[in-house]
Amino acid sequence: MRIGVTGANGFVGGYLLTALKDAGHDVVALVRSATGLDRASVDEVVTIPTIDGRTEVETLTAALEGLDCIVHLAARVHVMNAELDDKAFADVNVEGSLRLFDAAQEAGVERFVFLSSVKAAAERSGEKPLTSDDAPAPEDAYGRSKLEAERRLSALAAGSACKLVILRPAFVYGWPPAGNFRTVIKAVAKGIPLPLSAIRNARDMTYAGNLADAICAACSADGLLDAPYFVSDGTPVSTPDLFKGVGAALGRPARLFHVPVSLLRLAGALTGRSAAIARLTENFVVDTGPFIRDARWQPPYKMSEGLNAVAEAWQAAKRAGPDRT
């Protein structure tokens, strides 16, 4: 297949290009700039403008000519503590995605794979895994924009010759680390004592290598339905076990001590960090069974293998210079 990838030089894109190339596909990188692009993993680079509510569909249509499938990774991404409103996210994540789908239809592209997010569904799962049948409850502008994009793309795709596939990955980790995951690595690497050993929760995560493989499967699998699919490593992990796993990968013990969860939540309320404490203590598990069944897919990497790969890259970057980590 000839597969185009928007956001090809982004975090997930770096993993996806390799996965697509290894699977024997012709890969076209659709990017604003080729900076940071892995040229060895692409057959062609096509320069496109920023994809938002002002982008001309005709321009995008010309860029998509000859593709069998388009994977839409480019987005305004979630950034912790960023003060961006719904309009800023919707302009790119909703309106831009709709224009790209219109262009895909005009260009005769047969499949459109949209990378959404678990945040379109919720921020927690309770005792049971989230499913696509659960009423969505996004809590921030990013999650709301992804949910709105899902809904409006689904409406456009109804009856269209261009098949829409929506993937909702759980928290994605890999190299280079960012956000909370970067914080975890640095805390363990520095041996910082953390009051986390009392936490008994379960949270799904997705190694970027597994996500790339899932996207690759979504490009060609028969029998995929219109409902959004959750993707994860398949084995939920508790917060303490995540820190211990990172420690094992880095060759350093995670220094965890016991503080009751009730006190952690109280401290979060008093310091205005309730959301951060919730992410550390609550369950967030998703049902990946439908995608495993319909795509006939299994995650190729265990979490330990993903963490080991990140740790090796972290150590190599550290040897190259302190500013690399």
Describe the structure.
The chain is an alpha/beta fold and 325 residues long. It has a domain at 2-176 and 204-236 and 284-301: Rossmann fold, CATH 3.40.50.720. The chain has eleven helices and nine strands. It has a seven-stranded parallel beta sheet, sandwiched between helices. Strands 7-8 form a two-stranded parallel ribbon. Helix 1 links the parallel strand 1 (2-6) and strand 2. It is globular, with a radius of gyration of 20 Å. The mean pLDDT is 93.
Large-scale geometry: globular
The number of distinct helices, counting runs of at least 4 residues, comes to: 11
> In angstroms, what separates the terminal alpha carbons?
37 Å
| Count of beta strands | 9
The sequence of SSEs as H and E is: EHEEHEHEHEEHEHEHHHHH
What is the fourth-level CATH superfamily of the domain at 2-176 and 204-236 and 284-301? NAD(P)-binding Rossmann-like Domain
The amount of helix comes to 40-55%
